[in-house]
Amino acid sequence: MTSEKQLRQAALALPDVVESEGAFRVHDVVFVSAVPGIGIQLALDAADAEALLGQIGGAEESPGGVAVGLDDLDGQQLNHWVRRAWLACAPHELVETVVAADSAAPGSVGDLPATIGRPATRALAGAGITTLAAVAERSDGDLLALHGVGPRAVRLLREAIG
To answer: Distance of CA 52 to CAs 31, 47, 59, 83, 152, Å?
Structure first.
């Protein structure tokens, strides 16, 4: 069982997402929205919609995708399906950046230090932050909001900036 707070965290951790009126949008395209009395609706491509319908017994086809109750999803499933909906709706160039970031290795992205580790490197690259100059423009809170960036990584980045 997941909560609306977990939904917000999962959706807002993705690049270029805006929340408004019970929906999450990427470049003005709704990829997740609240469905009163049911839970959420995910805008998935056909293959992902079929997979979700087969995996979650309470999921139902809907005009804009697949509707599923938050009670029917655990945290990992929620994160997975929110990301899949985002991938289906985000602009191609942005998707390419995020997918490339998934395989980013520490020390291989811009001038980011290898010591920050794989999760932080991937999170920063996925958010388009590939240089220490770009890190310097963000607050610690903004960096910590990225899934995979923890206090240790922020400290190491600030030390590298000097």
So the answer is: 15, 9, 7, 13, 36
How far is it between the farthest Cα atoms of the chain? 53
Taking the model in full, what pTM does it have? 0.76
pLDDT averaged per 10 residues, the chain (length 162): 84 91 95 89 95 93 91 90 95 88 85 94 87 94 88 96 92
**Chain length of the chain:** 162
- Helices 46-55 & 75-89 angle (0-180, nearest 10): 160
**Which residue, chain included where needed, has tokens 């009395």?**
37
Strands 60-62 and 39-42: unpaired
